[in-house]
């Protein structure tokens, strides 16, 4: 009687990889000892292929996990077609890991397939992996040119358009440059295009992550969501945990309103100043040539990519460079989150307000310019509308114009109501930590939590009706904005993360900033955080846990001056991949791994023949053949299911053993399985070795006696049923 254990469990995963999400922000990060004080470059990118590091399927930047068996790697290669202006070619190649038993992809509706290897078209227009090759690929062309109104910033949350749009401002009012001009274009000489997205459906035997490298076959640059075709120079600067890449095409050099170093320094200053979380590892900004009929003056697309018309000035309250950067920091508008009609005004209002505020604080503009810019919201038709009801907007720039004034007034009142302890940035940070859709009521509740009923009441008047605030004076500005809150420092507390009831050690690793560790997938990860009020006044702390730029958890305790506290912030990774955790100025690289990352090399059972209820010691030898740490929670499986949870953490190349004591209460032959290994134990009431020692029993008699004993045992169990 042999008890077999089923070992093939197939799960179905549908991964949506829309345009603007499936790419990878990044590029070669230049090591700089000045910690971002001065930019690098420029670096000429004049030929060959421009590569961008890998990101996971959520669209968050991530590096490759090497040869791991729990990640589906995809390489997207873009090619310019100089003889066919308005089009470009895309090739997607998949490196399929062993746990994937079925793969199907769905392209955008405007894609025209020109070649495929290892894929076959289905009746419903998708493409299925034939399993003949391990690295299937598909090539298709896409139309590049897009015109017209691209709508509001949506962070690339759906297949189609996800944009943050800047318009140029004259006399305090936003006016779209060029009306229905281009948002994306390919001229044959150069082009700015969006990286096409796809949807991927998988059938898998264990959890599998998805990541992507985006590259250009030829001159150009890409951030993973946007791509530029043509000769470029690149400038970059690491600052506040992210690297900002400014790409200046050869065709746009004469159009630049300022030197590339000056533009980059302004963006870096905004990055350091804007403390709202949702910080990407890499921000990719292209200065596009000005000699074209553009619709908007700038577009932010995907997670952290943007383009800005090269002649856009820095010394202006409608600073397009900073406007698009603010959109990059709006994590609450991305995947699985978003706004309703009542809160969509916030997206452009924030970008307008902070662009002007940062320009003023940096000294690029004077207060009277800042004041006139916000005061535009006092005038008709903008003032006649209710921000929470877009149907009342007679001008589609109402969220830009009235929105920035209202947002600024709420910021001012928050500061006054809390003596500088709370600002609109603190509420912005909480928005970035939210899940699901931001409703109007939820936003009002956050304002009330931060500043009390007075601030909420003001928001209700200015957002839900046509009541409009009046722009405040310079003296009133100083009275509110010069208030100083408490000063806090945040950092990691301890040398391990907790997951699955176990501690996973933090180690130093070459090629990674900060510490690294590995944790198993689908286990809540507890991150110990230290909060320290280092100032001379009491205040509210804002400790956040960011994962790949997104705030996933936060705590806001009130601490007295000099007081220190610890807290645990939590994140549950649901897919394998490489993630960057940030706490204050500290980062931790976390490799999230499935059981497939730990290779079970051998399984030994001792003894292999026992009586019922006698212990059997199972010993498994496990190893990590990869170049990064492995983590898994393994269990021995028998006919009754899993036995014991064994957390395993292995450094690259490391080998270890895990043991478990097993018991079997009835005669039979049992299979024990762990990972890819299996072994068998025989359980019987009277082992053959003992029968041989009984007088009068030879081998034949022993076999006969054993058979009789087994039959008797089965009959006895049948009677007991």
TrEMBL record:
<keyword id="KW-1133">Transmembrane helix</keyword>
<dbReference type="InterPro" id="IPR011635">
    <property type="entry name" value="CARDB"/>
</dbReference>
<keyword id="KW-0378">Hydrolase</keyword>
<feature type="region of interest" description="Disordered">
    <location>
        <begin position="25"/>
        <end position="51"/>
    </location>
</feature>
<dbReference type="GO" id="GO:0004177">
    <property type="term" value="F:aminopeptidase activity"/>
</dbReference>
<feature type="transmembrane region" description="Helical">
    <location>
        <begin position="694"/>
        <end position="713"/>
    </location>
</feature>
<keyword id="KW-0031">Aminopeptidase</keyword>
<protein>
    <submittedName>
        <fullName>Putative glycyl aminopeptidase</fullName>
    </submittedName>
</protein>
<keyword id="KW-0645">Protease</keyword>
<dbReference type="InterPro" id="IPR013783">
    <property type="entry name" value="Ig-like_fold"/>
</dbReference>
<dbReference type="Pfam" id="PF07705">
    <property type="entry name" value="CARDB"/>
</dbReference>
<feature type="domain" description="CARDB">
    <location>
        <begin position="521"/>
        <end position="583"/>
    </location>
</feature>
<keyword id="KW-0472">Membrane</keyword>
<keyword id="KW-0812">Transmembrane</keyword>
